[in-house]
């Protein structure tokens, strides 16, 4: 799922991110034409999908358990905020998923389903449905392979890839619209109180961290299988991408959380201002071709991306990335430093002030992961980008060919002598 972007943050090349929204449909057609007859579903594919389903269920259950714990303790404000952190992102991602499904139906690239299946998809389990469909297609392809039915194996493999491609964008949105805000909320509650951390809070935070890491790993794994060209990202490249976005996201979460523990209302206004600024930037200068039938659709999708941009940058469309990365990450770096300075100057929690460990840790936490994430980004573009590997192969091929010609010339000289 890599479109064309910029190599080493300078020249045009393939990039990662939400180019899935640009190339997801032609990527499937290209894949089925050029995958050199390899339509094998591995056991790892099935296990990965099962773990994705289970991790999603566990994450939701942990958040619901925390909300119930708040309700039992008569902390109704925390209960309402926690439930909003579950329901609002679910509505957004479900709407996006339904929109993608209807677009596929219009283009006749989706197997038509019965009315009861559609109602289940839209109302009951809109996000699980895509996972379950992918799992069903993977199992059917595996069964067809065991029967040596090549046509059925290929058909269900293509369905699985298409389902994974569609869910990839929804997966990353779910990660950044639910798990990240939920983590900010719980960290803010913990840092602003004096009661310490309870087990439901700890489990919910750990669940959110694992959910963010797994969503990003799943997203970039899906990118590996649905690229419109044959320059696949290596596992080292995928790992560097995951570390890049995960570290930046964690740094943003920690930076927002420490300030929100002191000034929750002003922090909310600052996040809204950041989101609105990003929305206008995307809508006027970096508009995505996905969800762009009308100006309203395009603005609403830009608004969703604007919220996502609070935490990390996902390319809205194909194009040069150097200046976009430079502007965005410079802004985020300044914001993180400002958050640390504000917290250091205005923190009044006696437990944190009187500790030699907590205050330095909380001041370093938003900066360290951010710097590490930017370092991973630079390493990716300098060493692991698909075009870098392609050029190295070409150079290796030319060198091998030159050595071969030299050896042949030497042999001919010896023979003539």
Automatic annotation (TrEMBL):
The subcellular location is: Cell membrane; Membrane
Which residues span the membrane? 46-66, 78-102, 114-131, 202-222, 242-260, 266-284, 296-315, 327-346, 358-381
Per the record, membrane topology reads: Multi-pass membrane protein
Does Membrane appear among the keywords? yes
Q: Does the keyword Transmembrane apply?
A: yes
By sequence similarity, the record places it as follows: Belongs to the XK family.
- Entry protein name: XK-related protein
* Source organism: Culex pipiens pipiens
């Amino acid at each position: 799922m890599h479109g064309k972007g910029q190599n080493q943050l300078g020249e045009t090349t393939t990039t990662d991110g939400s180019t899935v929204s640009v190339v997801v449909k032609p990527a499937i057609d290209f894949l089925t034409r050029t995958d050199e007859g390899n339509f094998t579903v591995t056991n790892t594919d099935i296990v990965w999908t099962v773990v994705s389903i289970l991790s999603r269920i566990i994450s939701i259950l942990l958040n619901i358990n925390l909300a119930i714990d708040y309700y039992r303790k008569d902390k109704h404000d925390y209960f309402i905020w926690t439930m909003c952190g579950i329901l609002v992102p679910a509505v957004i991602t479900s709407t996006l998923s339904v929109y993608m499904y209807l677009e596929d139906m219009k283009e006749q690239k989706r197997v038509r389903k019965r009315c009861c299946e559609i109602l289940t998809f839209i109302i009951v389990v809109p996000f699980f449905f895509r996972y379950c469909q992918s799992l069903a297609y993977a199992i059917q392809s595996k069964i067809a392979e065991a029967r040596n039915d090549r046509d059925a194996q290929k058909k269900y493999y293509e369905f699985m890839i298409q389902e994974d491609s569609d869910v990839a964008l929804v997966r990353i949105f779910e990660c950044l619209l639910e798990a990240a805000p939920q983590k900010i909320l719980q960290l803010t509650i913990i840092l602003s109180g004096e009661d310490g951390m309870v087990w439901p809070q700890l489990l919910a935070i750990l669940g959110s961290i694992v959910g963010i890491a797994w969503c990003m790993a799943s997203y970039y794994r899906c990118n590996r299988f649905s690229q419109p060209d044959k320059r696949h990202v290596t596992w080292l490249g995928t790992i560097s991408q995951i570390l890049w976005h995960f570290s930046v996201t964690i740094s943003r979460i920690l930076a927002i959380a420490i300030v929100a523990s002191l000034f929750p209302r002003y922090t909310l206004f600052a996040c809204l201002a950041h989101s609105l600024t990003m929305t206008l930037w995307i809508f006027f200068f970096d508009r995505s071709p996905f969800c762009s039938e009308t100006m309203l659709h395009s603005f609403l999708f830009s608004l969703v991306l604007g919220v996502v941009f609070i935490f990390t940058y996902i390319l809205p469309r194909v194009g040069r990335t150097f200046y976009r990365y430079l502007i965005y990450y410079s802004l985020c770096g300044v914001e993180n430093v400002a958050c640390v300075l504000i917290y250091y100057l205005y923190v009044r929690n006696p437990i944190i002030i009187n500790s030699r460990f907590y205050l330095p840790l909380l001041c370093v936490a938003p900066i360290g992961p951010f710097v590490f994430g930017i370092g991973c980004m630079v390493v990716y573009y300098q060493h692991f980008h698909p075009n870098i590997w392609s050029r190295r192969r070409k150079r290796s091929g030319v060198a091998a060919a030159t050595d071969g010609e030299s050896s042949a010339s030497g042999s001919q000289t010896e023979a003539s002598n």
